[in-house]
Every structure is written in C-alpha cells, then in structure tokens.
Amino acid sequence: MSGHQLHFYATREDLEPAIRGIESAASFSYALTGLHMSRVFPKYSSALEIPSLGRATGDSAVTCEAYLVVAKEEKISIREIRQNSGGMRYAVDQLVNPRSIVFQSGGVRAGGVIIHGRVATTARSEEAKEFFSLFRKWLKKNFQRHRAFYVGPAAMRLKEEGARLTMAVQSPKEYDLA
User: What is the radius of gyration, based on Cα positions, of the chain?
Assistant: First the structure.
C-alpha cells in the first residue's frame, strides 16, 4: 500500500456521526500537520474537538488544515528542519510516523462553497491500513457516492440549494462536482 485516499464533501453535521462511529471502534490522537515554530503543536483526543471540523480553513483543498491520526497511545515523532535563515522548524507528518493516516475535513467556506476533504495514507504499516479502512467504512456508510467523491447529506442539501462542491474557490465552475 503506497497511497490510498478517499475524497469527500462534508459539513460538521455530516462528519459528527461518522466520527462517533470511528471513535467508538478505536481511540485516536489528532495532531495538526505542517511545520511548527516549536515542539508544541495542536493535538486533540477526538476529531470532534478540532475547532475547524467541517469548516474549510483555506481557499483550496491543499491549503486546508490536515491532521495526522495515530492510535491514542502512539507517541508522535517530530522532524527538526533547520532553516536557511537560521532557527529551526518542527515537522509533524507521515514521514516519521509510519503508523498514521492523514485526515482533512475540508468543509464549508464563505461564498456558498464547500471544499472537499480527504482521508489518506502513504504509510505501509498494518496500523495505517486498519485506520484508513475504519475511516473509509464509516464515511461510505454515512455518505453517498457521487463519482469519485463521497457526499454527506448536509453537503448534498447545500449543493441542491446552490452551493459549489469544489476543490478550490478559484477553480472554474465547470470543475465543480455536478
């Protein structure tokens, strides 16, 4: 397994039942990915605690917050990245966390737009495969397949009311989920 992902459109209302199901089956920690100024980074014991859950934090799927998902008892490894300008940044990512997946909720953005989220992993460990399968199972159970995406019921209602389901605010409308 060298790269599995599932894309979805969802609001917080859509994600809550799936997350409750996922977290009733296993306990996770969620850590904000990316380069951090210190070894301290946002970490949550439930996806329901993530303040931006179901709300897109960027104008495109690639700029929205992503969370490293590991078993609750797993220690998250951090990579030190020396900066050319001096100083250090601390990376939270899958590179040194092989028993992990990445979760991006995507979600509602201003202007009647819903940016897609995703669950993905590049890891090959059995744990990563199990975590991905668990998330996939609950998203498929709660969401409706629409082409290559899964769409939550509230996101579908918003689409029917005129919201755009897209990968980016600036993306032409012809690339929206029809």
Answer: 16
**Strands of the sheet with 113-115, listed across from one edge:** 107-109, 113-115, 164-166
- Phi, psi (degrees; rounded to nearest 5) at 86: 100, 160
Find tokens 């992902």 and name the residue: 5
> Cα–Cα distance between 90 and 66 in angstroms, integer?
15
Number of domains observed in the structure of the chain:
1
Is the model's pTM score more than 0.90? yes
Structural domain boundaries, residue 79? 4-175
Instruction: State how beta strands 149-151 and 144-146 pair.
Output: antiparallel
Task: State pLDDT tens for residues 21-49.
Answer: 999 999 999 999 999 999 999 999 999 99
Amino acid in the structure at residue 40: V
Angle between helices 126-142 and 12-25 (to 10 degrees): 140
User: What strands lie across the sheet with 144-146, from one edge to the other?
Assistant: 43-44, 28-32, 67-71, 101-104, 117-121, 4-9, 149-151, 144-146
Element (H, E) at 131: helix 126-142
